[in-house]
Amino acid sequence: MDELPAPAVVVLVGAAGSGKTTLRGRLVAGGLDPGTVISLDDLRCEARALDAKAGRPVRPLQDYSFSAVRRAARRCDALLAFGAGYLSDATQLRRRERVPHVRAAAEAGLPSVALLLPALSLDELLARDAARPPDEHVPADVLARHAHRRSLLRPGLLRDEGFDVVREVP
Questions:
Q1: Four-point Cα dihedral 50, 53, 57, 59, nearest 10
Q2: In a structure prediction context, what are the per-residue pLDDT tens digits for the chain, which is 170 residues long?
Q3: Could you tell me if 61 and 45 are in contact, meaning their C-beta atoms sit under 8 angstroms apart?
Q4: 3-state class (DSSP) for residue 149
Q5: Are 83 and 77 in contact (CB under 8 A)?
Q6: What Pfam families does its record include (predicted)?
Q7: Which of 42, 60, 122, 124 could hold 147 in an S-S bridge, CB 3.0 to 4.6 Å?
Q8: What end-to-end distance do the CA atoms of the chain give, in Å?
């Protein structure tokens, strides 16, 4: 990836299994502060681990989504309050998931960046999902929706939503 503005609000946009977390790892290896990464998957895992530690029954990871989204929003707000910016590692396949990041960046005086992951076929997403640990599998119907939603996205659409920088990730 070319140099990204820093600080900035960086939003990864792509289906489950399209390489968002791999890209995040590369960006962190390249110098991005891991403390500025907000990952719904990581927050779901943290919530499940807290249930296990407290002796409560653990649920499938997707059952922790509501609390993960709330915790992510609080972390994003806290980072912006310090002018740090953040990287959001989530699918962001719906406009209603992306636009709040654009608005938050503008309010904080930071650039907003969308990194658009490749539109992969459902077969490719299913194959990649099969390689994940069993407790991290994404249901096939969810992957089908992700593949469809991603197929509708183009850089110009993200620019029209207000992103300052839009880059397609090969």
A1: 40
A2: 568 888 999 999 999 999 999 999 999 999 999 999 999 999 999 999 999 999 999 998 889 999 999 999 999 999 999 999 999 999 999 999 999 999 999 999 999 999 999 999 999 999 999 999 888 889 999 999 999 999 999 999 999 999 999 999 98
A3: yes
A4: helix
A5: no
A6: AAA_33
A7: 122
A8: 9
Which of 126, 95, 153 is closest to 17 using CA atoms? Answer: 126
Distance (Å, whole) CA 131 – CA 93: 22
Q: What is the CATH superfamily name and number for domain 9-39+84-168? A: P-loop containing nucleotide triphosphate hydrolases (3.40.50.300)
- Residues 149, 134: Cα–Cα separation, whole Å: 24
